[in-house]
Structure formats: structure tokens, C-alpha cells
Amino acid sequence: MPSFPGVDYLDFDSLLSDEEKLARNTARQFVDAEITPLIEEYNRDGKFPVQLVPQMAELGLFGASLKGYGCAGMSNVEYGLVTQELERGDSGLRSFVSVQSALVMYPIHAFGSERQKEKWLPLLQQGKAIGCFGLTEPQFGSNPGGMLTRAVKKGGDYILNGEKMWITSGSIADVAVIWAKCEDDVIRGFLVEKGTPGYKAWDVHGKYSLRASVTSGLAMTDCKIPAGNLLPGVEGLKGPLSCLNQARYGIGWGGIGAAMACYDTALNYAKQRKQFDNKPIASHQLVQEKLVWMITEITKAQFLALQVGRLKDAGRVHPSHISMLKMNNVWMARETARMAREILGANGIVDDYCVMRHMNNLESVFTYEGTHDIHKLIIGERITGIAAFS
Ligand code: TGC
Ligand code: FAD
Questions:
Q1: Considering only CA atoms, which residue is closest to atom 23 of ligand 2?
Q2: Is residue 215 lining ligand 2, measured as CB closer than 6 Å?
Q3: Please, what are the domains in the chain?
Q4: Measured from the CB, is residue 96 less than 6 Å from ligand 1?
Q5: 163 pLDDT tier (thresholds 50, 70, 90)
Q6: pLDDT exceeds 80 at position 81
Q7: pLDDT at residue 19 greater than cutoff 60
Q8: pLDDT exceeds cutoff 80 at 1
Q9: Residue 3: its pLDDT value, please?
Q10: DSSP annotation of 283
Q11: Residues classed as catalytic
Q12: N or C: fewer beta carbons within 10 Å in the chain?
């Protein structure tokens, strides 16, 4: 049995099926046994625990909500509960799984040729190949439609030139899903394999956030890609944005996991730490106020995630619903981590406890996959009909 007790103030579990609870508990057990004991060391050293990849594959965590090609075929709610648990361990581990599943396997599954699917999906599912997703560029983050990366058709090949930045798993990836503008100015996706002449990856150093995750830059200089590596099933910005819907959904659940870890740590600490008349700090109203805020927001976030998951499983979700989930739950987790840090006092700043690691990680999560404010604007457009991006 997993050692983490969960956070369930309003009998959330009663809304889950046995299969959903099993998926969550399996991931919970994996996190408690394999991630929690080593994550502080890997975070301190700035290393991704790559040795966990085969175990994650064995548990069916890669491409978990896809069907066929060896994938687990989980429901969206099951997949969400898995990403919740992974992020309770560390946002970097959840990032790895999100990228592999939602940003690499999903586009190949949804938009790839049968040959591309048969070649890559089993390898990616088994963790024998690692993938990355190159959309962001040094000058184009929130506005990926402005990208400068170009793909020019030459005989039976495409020639790619450009640079991608802030790419999770970039330098360890065997295959990169690269989004580039073609001669007709339409964005298309390409599979670029490690070792292709003219393709280079390097790591970003000096990160205070997501230290247990690989973040890279990618450069393509006259990089020749066979035309068979073009993803034939999609054209335009809706290609990469469809992938982001899948990843943002998992992140919305992930925020709950990071918040649960911080709340649980702060609650236990507050009950044990004594100040003034040998009383636990949990006996003070100002400390209780923080703990109550946390559990209330975690509880609201759970119901939001479950409803978005149920809509997604029913085929009724809109991207702006997923924006609300990502925006609210990551904000909630970031605030929870900061409050937990306060409750731990000086102990909150060292890695004997998980809270400052989560707090720092959540700065990246707040920014990637659409910043908090970009999601506000997506929801704003949905309710007013007016786009306010530019
Ligand atoms: P816009 O004109 O609104 O749309 C262009 C076309 O795309 C369609 N579309 C979508 N399709 C599917 N899903 C969505 N969520 C979609 N949103 C829009 C739209 O219907 C249109 O289709 P069509 O057929 O008419 O052409 O595009 P815009 O240029 O105005 O941009 C809108 C905006 C700002 C919302 C979008 O660019 C955006 O979401 N920006 C944020 C960028 C972002 O999230 N980047 C993430 C990079 S990947 C990453 O961070 C990975 S971190 C991974 C990890 O480690 O976990
Ligand atoms: P900018 O777009 O420059 O935004 C800066 C600020 O301006 C933000 O606060 C933003 O909200 C605000 N802003 C921008 N436009 C508007 C507007 N219209 N109205 C109001 N405010 C606005 N990308 C990938 O493609 N693949 C990956 O695997 C990947 N992994 C990442 C991993 C990490 C650790 C990080 C930190 C980032 C990753 N990214 C990845 C990139 C990420 O998606 C971008 O950082 C994000 O989209 C924001 O872009 P930017 O950093 O260029 O910020």
C-alpha cells in the first residue's frame, strides 16, 4: 500500500470508480517507493533520474490514454489521477511523462502516417525511445504563430533551419517533434531523429526550477529530413495547439499533486513544531487560516479537474475548459507551496522538506504550456468572443 494518505476533505473518492482508484494508487505507490527517496538528491544535483524510465514504461505511464500500439488505453480521469501522483513526487517527472505522452506520442498517434506510428509508438511506450516537442523559439513563446523555423521542400526531402528553446528532454530525445513553417507559410510538424546531420541539442544550465528535468535548446542548420518524416495529418497552428490541450489537461491534475505534498508537509509540521508556551504552531489561528485556505483550494481544484476529465472522456471538453483547469490549479499549487514554505519557517528553505522544491518547480509550470495570463485571455475570448492577445 502507498504511504501517502491522500487529501480528501469532501469524500472525493466516492466519485471515482474502482479502476480510477487503482490507477491512482498504482502511481502513488510508485512515487512513494521510487521517486520520493531519491528526488531531493537528483534535484540538488540537477539531474533527471533516467533510470526510472523503464519502470514508468512497465507501469504503462507513457501514452497511457492512447489506444493501440501497446498503450494502456486509460480514461482521461485515470490518466489525470496518474499525473497528479507523479507531480506529487516532482513536477520534473510529470513533465517527462507529459512530453513523452501528450506532446510526442499523441501527435504521432493523431497525425502520423501508419509507418510513423508503427515505428515510434511502441518504442516510446516501452521507454526504449525518448521524445521531445519543439514549438517555442528564443523570440516566440506565448505567440508561437510567429515562429521563424522554416522547412523547405527539396526533392524527396525537407530542409529545416531554425532554433527551438526551453525544450523538455531535448538533449536526451531520440526523436523531436519539430513545428516549422513551410514555403506556403503554413505550420507543419516533422519528426527529426537524433543524429541527423545539422541537428544539435544542448542543455540549459543554472535553473532554479525543474532541476530534476532536462531543459534544452535545439538548432537545425540545413537539416535534411525525408518527406516521410512530415506528420501528414494536420496543418496550421491547431496541430501543436491540439497537443497542448492534452498536456495542459495533465498539468491541471498535476498541480493538485504538488499542492497535496506541500499541504501534507505543512500540516504535519504545524502539529509538531512548538513555539510560545510549548504549544504547536497549529494551535494559532493565523496558521490554521493558511491550512484551511490550502485544503479548501485543493478540494475545489479536485472537483474542477474531475469535471474537466469527465467532459473530456465524454468528448465534450473545449480547450478553454482545459485552460481554466491549468490556470486555476497551477496558481492554487503555487500559492499553497508558498504558504507551506511560510509555515515551515527556516526549515522551509532546505531540502529536508519538499516544499521549496515544489515552489520553485511551480514557477516553470506557471509559465509553460501557456502562461497563467495567456490562459486568462483564452477564457476571456471564450466568454466575450473577443480575442485580446494583441
Ligand atoms: P488562433 O488564431 O487563436 O488559432 C490558430 C488555429 O488554432 C486553433 N486553435 C486550437 N486548436 C486546438 N486546440 C487549441 N487549444 C486551439 N487554440 C486555437 C484555432 O481554431 C485556429 O484554427 P484554424 O483552423 O482557424 O487555423 O491562434 P493565435 O496565434 O491567435 O494564438 C492563440 C494563443 C495565444 C492562445 C496560442 O498561441 C497559445 O496557446 N499560446 C501559448 C503557447 C504555449 O502554450 N506554448 C507551449 C509550448 S510547449 C510547452 O510549454 C511544453 S512544457 C512541457 C512540460 O515540460 O511539461
Ligand atoms: P513570453 O511569451 O515572452 O511572456 C513573458 C510574459 O509576458 C509572461 O508573463 C506572459 O504572460 C506575458 N505576455 C505575453 N504575451 C502577452 C499578452 N498578449 N498579453 C498579456 N501578457 C502577455 N516549450 C516547448 O515548445 N517545448 C517544451 O518542451 C518546453 N518545455 C519547457 C520547460 C521549461 C522548464 C520552461 C520554463 C519552458 C518550457 N517551454 C517549452 C517554453 C514555454 O512554453 C514558454 O516559456 C511559454 O510559452 C512562455 O513563453 P516565454 O517564456 O517566451 O514568455
A1: 136
A2: yes
A3: 12-125 (1.10.540.10), 131-229 (2.40.110.10), 238-384 (1.20.140.10)
A4: no
A5: very high
A6: yes
A7: yes
A8: no
A9: 85
A10: G
A11: 369
A12: C
- Looking at residue 308, its amino acid is V
For residue 382, which ligand has an atom nearest its CA? 1
CA of 177, nearest ligand number: 2
Exposure b/e, 350-364, CB count within 10 A at least 16 = b: eeebbbbbbbbbbeb
Cβ of 136 closer than 6 Å to ligand 2, yes or no, is: yes
- For 289, the grid coordinates are 487560516
Q: What is the position in ligand 1's atom list of the atom closest to the CA of 136?
A: 47
Closest C-alpha residue for ligand 1 atom 22? 238
166 lines ligand 2 (CB under 6 A): yes
Q: Provide the grid cell at 126.
A: 516501452
Three cell numbers at 146?
A: 510567429
- The predicted pLDDT at position 2 comes to 58
Q: Is the CB of 98 under 6 A from ligand 1?
A: yes
Q: 370 CA distance to ligand 2 centroid (A)?
A: 6
Distance CA 100, CA 213 (A): 13
Q: At what angle do helices 285-313 and 238-272 cross, to 10 degrees?
A: 150
Averaged pLDDT for residues 299-326: 98
How far apart CA 131 and CA 194 sit, in angstroms, is 10
Strand partners, 352: none
Residue type, 237: L
Q: Are 254 and 94 in contact (CB under 8 A)?
A: yes
Q: What cell numbers appear for 241 in the block? A: 495547439
CB 241: neighbour CB atoms within 10 A?
16
